[in-house]
Amino acid sequence: QNGATLTITHNLGTADVLAMVYVNSSASNTNAQEVGMMVHNSAGQFDCGCLVTSLATNSIVVQLGEDGYNDITAGGGLSTTSFASQYIKVVVLAAGASGGGANKYVADWATSHGGTTVDDEATLAISHDLGTTDFNVSYYVNDAATDTNAQIVTWDAYPSVSAGAQTTDVSTTGVTTQLGKNGYVHATSAGQTDFSGWAGKYLKAVFVG
Length: 209
Known about the structure:
Layout: E1 5-9, E2 18-24, E3 33-34, E4 50-53, E5 59-64, E6 69-72, E7 78-81, E8 87-93, E9 104-110, E10 112-113, E11 116-117, E12 123-127, E13 136-142, E14 151-152, E15 155-158, E16 161-170, E17 174-179, E18 184-187, E19 193-196, E20 202-208
Antiparallel strand pairs: 1-5, 2-3, 2-8, 4-5, 6-7, 9-20, 10-11, 12-17, 13-14, 13-20, 15-16, 16-17, 18-19
């Protein structure tokens, strides 16, 4: 239902994970849709989508927006749909330790990366050792250097507003990460959102590729 806080268990044995959330009207992969990460509407109209929070070695928490999710139509338009009576599927991925699976690199919790302090409008240089540009990266934020209560960072931008973290350059040894001038979108346990400033926050980047 709208605003629900879901605890999803997994057996990966690590908190360095990537998570994808899907929604459907039935327990089927056919016509399932990825749930967009929750964004904050400055006009206070909609808190739609979801955010992944509170990482653990055997679970994550998915916070659903209090106004449902954005359902995309065949023509590319959006409509707001309630989570009530919908089915949720969560795919949690981590790099495999053997068997030729994907590799992982973690730029662990820090208040600065590449010599630049985490702050509103900061441009960070974050290194990795994957030796490829074919990877996914997820950013997490927290008040302390811990996975407990950490929250995934989205990118939310519209005229005169930018919030979150966006990768702006990719190389075989690192990325350039731009932080929003309005901080990042923070979700409450009621499924509401607001902006929080980057100053004093810890940032972690998980690369899988």
